[in-house]
Amino acid sequence: MIEAVLTLSGIGLVASLGLGLAARKFAVRRNPLIERVEQILPGANCGACGTAGCSAFAKAVVEGEAPLNACVPGGQEVARLIAELMGAAVPSTESYVAVLLCKGGKGEARSKFEYDGVSDCRAAVLVSGGDKGCAYGCLGLGTCERVCPFGAIHMDEDGLPVIDRETCTGCGVCVKNCPKGVLLLAPREASVHIRCHSHDKGAQVKRVCTVGCIGCGACVRICPYEAITLDDGLAVMDYTRCRQCGLCVDSCPTGNITSLVSQTPKARIDPERCKGHALCEAACPVDAISGEPGKTRLVDEERCIGCRICCSVCPVHAIAMVNPD
Amino acid sequence: MSKVFRFKGGVHPRDRKELSRDKAIEPAPLPERLVVPLSQHIGAPCEPVVSQGDTVKKGQKIGEARGFVSVPVHAPTSGKVIKIDSFPHPLGKDLPAIEIEPDGLDTCADGAGGQEDFASLSPDELRAIIREKGIVGMGGATFPTHVKLSPPEGKPIDTLIINGAECEPYLTADYRLMLEEPEKVITGMRIMKTILGVERAFIAIEKNKPEAIDAVKGVLGPDSREATVVPLEVKYPQGAEKQLIKTIVNREVPPSGGLPMDVGVLVQNVGTAAAVDQAVRLGIPLIERVVTVTGEGIREPKNLRVRIGTPVGSLLEACGGFRETPGKLVLGGPMMGISQYTTEVPVIKGTSGVLVLPRSRVRLEEARTCIRCGTCVRVCPMNLLPNFIGTFASRGLFDQAERYYALDCIECGSCAFSCPAKIPLVHLIKYAKAEIMAKKRKK
Ligand code: SF4
Ligand code: SF4
Ligand code: SF4
User: In whole angstroms, what is the distance from residue B10 CA to residue B414 CA?
Assistant: First the structure.
């Protein structure tokens, strides 16, 4: 009995000693900073930063192999926290949001045939490119909804994904997984979007969809900033030029262009500050500003399209944009 | 007589060949317009060499091959080029094609003579003719034939198998061809044997076509040493290349990317053999083929000799039109064919059949949960685990699917055919394959 107990405890002792030594000898030294960075990250493992997931990113940042602000979902706030931890300067981060470039749901777009296969857009494209009459349109089987790591997408009754701009972090996972390429990452502040992605000729678009871009060019002509160009029968928005005036929205005959701005803001000039330089007057693309030489300028709100050009040229910062009541 | 081996798995769908098996091949009427796709083979598509408004003659080259794995396309009749544009293609996409309005005269292009005495030509000359005449595998895969006939150094071919199994239900095009024109098939085989310099050849035909077996044996003569006609067990997918090789010469094509030539075998479809014969002996390019128009949804099933580029709609008309509301239109057989959404798609070099199923026969069944019966595993001729690959695909786990050899699937459809839970296994596996390939391309 005694021997048995002694033998067993002996074996236990030797084994634990061995384990203890091994733990010391083979310990993986991990930079504690990595762990702290990882704690800051959102933990969605979306991969938008270009690494395999949040842990890999934390390691890469600490080792200087990834920029501090590469975490897209985390945005400016996470970049700031990481910078603080690492004692580096805070880089500025641009913020994006996913936008659907299709308006043709079940009600608007014709369907080619009855599809009864696997319920996933990526599987459906294998069958004659999907059942949608438009070769470019959203298939509506909700692959984007399922892959979104943040639950920012839900499919509506019309069979189109609706993206919740608040929850969407702009990680781009949906964009990568949509087989039709109808999702786009657009700058978060952009509010005017051309919601079609079809390069088909106008007649063909009309045959299959009531709301598609027919490439008429009305928006191109009306845009004061040359922000829209026609690319092979499709109007394409250059977000760096768009100033959200919304003129194109009303010009589109199929109602394809949408704007999130319900009312266009108007320029208002503070008479206290205005010194009558009239730089704004010269800059205004629609001649909405006028005034006597050297006097306070006046804005014709009927004409103002809310482009903010005047604000940016005013040397004394006398112009503010206000929403009309 | 050689011993017949077996391949693992397979299924026994009802063949329904009775609908068209006794209908002799007849020429299909000339349609009002022909749409000849520039992409009718696996490999780089053709470059058009005619322009809108040109008049073309029958057999004239209208699309030039680009690259080695590519063959030209020819005008199926004389007429005028109306348009070169994108048209619906049997593969389900819109692809570039040349639209021709026939003038009804069928004037042949001159110059193209054949060589009765093919033995006087060198293998390279023969290969060049086969390529120039646009010959591709007509069993459905449409792989350029001259490429298959040019095995690389170090991979000698010792066996040629002429595939007349036609194991897809409904189809009878190959059967009628063997029955009515066996000499073309045999001559084609002789030409290919000459090119490869092989002694050993087999002609494989399923046992349910005894008349075809007799016809082919008749041409070969009683104790011919040229080829052995092998009657095969009736089982699907008996006509699939790898399964055929296993049954006839008991060799296994190495999995994951192995090719028949790795085991010294070349398989060619009977239609391809006949086309090779026509090209070499008579100088006729591949501009027509036999197509079975069949199915319960068509009034009068037929075997037609169809010009490449004929819109399917005109074939349906030639067969009396729909019998009742159509439910499904498939190009190819019911197991591996591709469903179409429009009758505008043209017949291409790989189109063996046009199948119309009436609405009343198309059952749309809801997929249920896998009951783990293992049927799909048992029937898979590629020794895969379709249930697992399917599950991985439906959960988006494509790396896992790849580890379970999704890419080895030959898409024969045996698994989905026999799944009692009606899980669309092949669709899921095709989906996984597409995602895996997309990822590989990105790398
Ligand atoms: S946006 Fe793309 S992924 Fe989302 S439902 Fe439409 S086709 Fe599918
Ligand atoms: S909607 Fe798209 S971009 Fe936005 S969080 Fe979801 S997956 Fe990322
Ligand atoms: S997994 Fe592929 S090869 Fe196997 S039975 Fe299914 S379709 Fe055929």
Answer: 6
Which of B427, B428, B433 is most worth mutating to test chain A (most A CB atoms within 10 A of its CB)? B427
Q: A114-170 pLDDT, tens per residue?
A: 898 899 999 999 998 999 999 999 999 999 999 999 999 999 999 999 999 989 999
Contacts of A146 (CB under 8 A, 6+ apart): A120, B396
Touching check for B208 and chain A: CB below 8 Å?
Answer: no
Chain A positions touching B396 (Cβ under 8 A) are 146-147
- What pTM was estimated for this model as a whole? 0.82
The per-residue pLDDT for range A58-72, each reduced to its tens digit, is 998 888 888 888 888
B359 touches A: beta carbon within 8 Å? no
Spatial distance between the Cα atoms of B11 and A325, rounded to a whole number of angstroms:
74
Q: Which residues contact B230 (CB under 8 A, 6 or more apart)?
A: B2, B4, B202, B203, B204, B205, B247, B248
Alpha carbon A299 to chain centroid, angstroms: 34
The answer on pLDDT for A323 being more than 80 is no
pLDDT, tens digit (0-9, with 9 covering 90-100), for B242-290? 999 999 999 999 998 899 999 999 999 999 999 999 999 999 999 999 9
Q: What is the pLDDT of residue B1?
A: 46
The complex scores an ipTM of 0.83
Please list every protein residue whose CB sits less than 6 Å from any atom of ligand 2: A 98, 148, 150, 152-153, 163, 168-174
> Measured in angstroms, how far is the CA atom of residue A143 from the centroid of ligand 1?
6
Q: Residue B305's beta-bridge partner residues?
A: B27, B290
